[in-house]
Amino acid sequence: MKKIEILVVEDEPKLAQTISDFLRIQNYEVETALTGNKALEYFCQNKQKVDLILLDLMLPDISGYTVLKEIRKISEVPVIILSARSAVADQMSGFEKGADDYITKPFTLALVKMHIEAVLKRAGKLRTMVEYNDLQADVNAQLLFYKEQHIPTTRKEFDLMIYFMEHPGIVLPRDTILNAVWEYDYAGDVRTIDTLVKQLRKKLGEGCNYIRTVYGVGYIFGEDIHEN
Predict the structure, then answer these.
(1) Which of 10, 95, 129, 187 is 20 to 30 Å from 105 at the Cα level?
(2) In CATH, what number is assigned to the domain containing residue 165?
(3) Domain assignment of residue 186, given as a range
(4) What is the DSSP secondary structure assignment for residue 183, as one 8-state letter?
């Protein structure tokens, strides 16, 4: 399956490299452009390949808004603005000019990852099937299968299972899970995740023990463990 390609348009070389290296670790294909004109040149030649653009506004040759305007003449590719301009008016202007999302600097790479996943999900560009051993999930159809049997789920139960399946063998704190499943910072009770896990365990049955509790922290998803 073709990797999702992201075009990073950022004039600060170190930041561009940091973002690009991080995204490659997340299994994305990445191209970088340090100027607006280079970004437009690459995109016009490869618009069928690029799935998402991270766009800085303050570029050395032309503004990020000019880049966005030119891109919108030929494509509806998702664009996430990266900007030090944090005023509400600036963010509103970004959306009005055609951006799909807006991240203010400074930011964490984890936050950028969550925004990218949220935008790709809305655009229907995330991979369609996620599999882990005898679990299969059809992302587009929102269907979960265990040992080829359909497991009915709510939307949030399904999103949680996808998150677990994409992060096997990693201890996941409850607040991290909530922020990922709800896509942005979630101000609710972290016990919400315990309720979802309880519901999933019940639906999957006693024979499926992939979701294990890490007491005092959260959960870890991994190989099926059968008690003797």
Answers:
(1) 187
(2) 1.10.10.10
(3) 129-221
(4) S
